[in-house]
Amino acid sequence: MRSSNITDAAPLAPFAVSLGDPAGIGPEIVAKSWVMREARGLPPFFAVGDAASLRAVWLGPIAIIGAPEEAAGAFGNALPCLQVADAGDIVPGSPSIDGARTAFQALEVAVGLARQGSAAGIVTAPVGKEQLYGVGFTHPGQTEFVAERCGVSPHNAVMMLAGPSLKVVPITIHIPLAQVASALTIDLIRARALTTAKGLQRNFGIARPRLAVAGLNPHAGENGALGREEIEVIRPAIELLREDGLDIVGPLAADGMFHARARETYDAALCMYHDQALIPIKTLYFDEGVNITLGLPIVRTSPDHGTAFGIAGTDSANPGAMMAALKMAAEAARARIAHG
Ligand SMILES: NC(=O)C1=CN([C@@H]2O[C@H](COP(=O)(O)OP(=O)(O)OC[C@H]3O[C@@H](n4cnc5c(N)ncnc54)[C@H](O)[C@@H]3O)[C@@H](O)[C@H]2O)C=CC1
Ligand SMILES: NCC(=O)COP(=O)(O)O
C-alpha cells in the first residue's frame, strides 16, 4: 500500500477517549496505552467515563480533571480522567445497566468536546451493543451515533477498518445478513465510495485513492448465473463513480481480492457486508486494526475489537489496537491540518 506523507510537527490538543463499557476491557487498554505513551509516541489524551472503572483494573496514577484544558498538564504524570457518571458496582466481565448508561454518557460527552474544539478528536473504547440497546441507544453503533451528533447522515458516514496493508469499508454495516441484498442500492454504494475517496485524501493524505469493489455473490455472480446484484446494482454504481472521476475497479470476486499481491493494487476495498470486510482485516491485524469513521467534521477512531467481556479483569487484554487507534487519530488530525 502506498504510504502517505504526513508530518508529525503539528501540535495537537489532547484526544478525548471514551472508556466504553466499564465492565469490558476498555479501561484496561486505555490505562495500558497511557503506560506506553512515551515508548509508542502516543499523542496526549484523557479518559472520559467513570474513573472507578480504571481503578477496578489498574493501580497506576489517575488525575481527575474538571475540564479538558487540564489534561495536557496532567498527562505526563498521570492518566487524566474526566468523570462523567457513576457506573455503580463495577465487576469486570459482568456488564450492567448503570455501566451501559455510563458508556453512553461518556460517548456523548467525548463527541461534544471534539465538536466544540476542546479535544483534537475522539477515540472510543468498545461498547457492548446489546447493553447499549437496552438503555435507549437507538443507533446501530457508535459510528452512526457520532455521525448524527455531527449532523452527518448515516449514508455519508463511512466505517473504515484499517491496518498496515489493508483498509476495508463495509457498505452495509450492522444489519442482518438476510437484509443485505435488499439494502444494497446504487445510491448507497456511490455515497460510501465518494466518502471513502475523500476520507482517504483528508485523513491519510492519499492524493488519488484507488478503490476496489467486492461483489456480493460467489465469483462476483458469474455474469448473473450466481446472482444478479453485480449486474443490477454494483456495476452500475461503479460506472457512475468512474464518471464522478474515481479510480475504481470491480466488482471483484471477494475471495480473491485480499491476498498480499492483490492488496497492493488498491488503497481501500469496498465490501458489501460487515463480515466480508471485517474477517480479512481482523485475521491479518486483530491486535493493531483501527476503526476510523470517514465523512465527519471531527476525527474519530476506535480499536477494531469489542469489549471482550470474557477476559476483562484478567490483565490479559492487548492494548495494541487502542494504541494504533490513538496514533491513527493523531495522524488523521495532522493530515487534516496539512491538507485542509
Ligand atoms: N467498537 C466497538 O465498540 C465494538 C464493540 N463490539 C461489542 O463487543 C462485544 C463482544 O463482541 P465479540 O464479538 O465477542 O468481539 P470481541 O472483539 O470483544 O472478542 C473477540 C475475541 O477476541 C478477544 N479479544 C478482543 N479484544 C482483545 C484484546 N484487546 N486483547 C486480547 N484479546 C482480545 C476476546 O477475548 C474474544 O476471544 C459485543 O457486545 C459487541 O457488540 C464488537 C466490536 C466492536
Ligand atoms: N464490528 C465493528 C463495530 O462493531 C464497530 O462499530 P461502531 O460502534 O464503531 O459503530
UniProtKB/TrEMBL annotation:
One of its GO terms (biological process) is pyridoxine biosynthetic process. InterPro entries: PdxA (IPR037510), PdxA_fam (IPR005255). Pfam families: PdxA. Substrate binds at residues 143, 282, 291, 300. Keywords: Cobalt, Cytoplasm, Magnesium, Metal-binding, NAD, NADP, Oxidoreductase, Pyridoxine biosynthesis, Zinc. GO terms for cellular component: cytoplasm. Its cofactor is Zn(2+); Mg(2+); Co(2+). Binds 1 divalent metal cation per subunit. Can use ions such as Zn(2+), Mg(2+) or Co(2+). GO terms for molecular function: 4-hydroxythreonine-4-phosphate dehydrogenase activity; cobalt ion binding; magnesium ion binding; NAD binding; zinc ion binding. It comes from the Bacteria. A divalent metal cation binds at residues 174, 219, 274. Belongs to the PdxA family. The active site is located at the dimer interface. Catalyzes the NAD(P)-dependent oxidation of 4-(phosphooxy)-L-threonine (HTP) into 2-amino-3-oxo-4-(phosphooxy)butyric acid which spontaneously decarboxylates to form 3-amino-2-oxopropyl phosphate (AHAP). Homodimer. HAMAP family: PdxA. This is 4-hydroxythreonine-4-phosphate dehydrogenase.
